[in-house]
Design a protein that fits this description.
Elements (H helix, E strand, L loop, with lengths): L5 E2 L7 E3 H17 L12 H4 L7 H5 L3 E5 L11 E7 L12 E8 L8 E3 L4 E5 L6 E7 L11 E5 L2 E5 L4 E4 L4 E4 L3 E7 L6 E8 L7 E3 L8 E3 L16
Parallel strand pairs: 2-16
Antiparallel strand pairs: 1-15, 3-4, 4-5, 5-14, 6-15, 7-12, 7-14, 8-11, 8-13, 9-10
Amino acid sequence: MNVAPIPINETRLSILKRSQINASIEQAIDVFAANGLHLPPYAYLTPEQWRQMGSEADEIRHCLLGWDVTDFGSGDFARIGRTLFTLRNGRMDDPRYPKSYAEKFLLDPEGQRAPAHFHRSKREDIIHRGKSGAIILELTPTNDAGIAIEQPLRVQVNGMTRTVQPRERIRLSPGESLEIPPRTIHQFWGEEGGGITASGEVSSVCDDWNDNCFVDPAKRFPKIEEDVPRRFYLCQEYPAA
């Protein structure tokens, strides 16, 4: 993996269908509810309701709260993709939104993962929020130039210090968690054979426009084919007040 990570928004790849987005959000609603994860009211707003929302909802709009479905331009959503809901976030570049933290719920189908990537500044904890199954994670440290390096990495698993090797797989059971330091290449997914489950992310502010670096070409927010009507707005799509 000795290649320089590529910043987001520098590639133009495939198109994700709106029908896939609708179906994945509906599945996430069911899976989150089955695992006792309760969503806020704006998770269920229809496009018509959103078009009536005023400036009172600006934090949701400007901090990219809400539904986020992407295949990262992979054209293979079942393998490289992500469906998540951002519950809270701030913005480092806007004093109106001073939160220094973020939180997300993530849907974890078997084997589906984001592309290998790291964050320049974000520190995050991945928490198994489901009632069953397991979450598998792989981590690799990078040097100051953003290049993967073959050396051990000290991490916190369930609050306990642990040394892992590059790309060593770490398995989280329900309730367990792992801290991912900034500039650490990572991927995580639902363990094959364990069924669909859910995880959570608690982190410093999430800046998806500027803080993500992908090892291979990827696009954080996908181009969308409108093959069916939209059921939900994604976080990057909200109409202005």
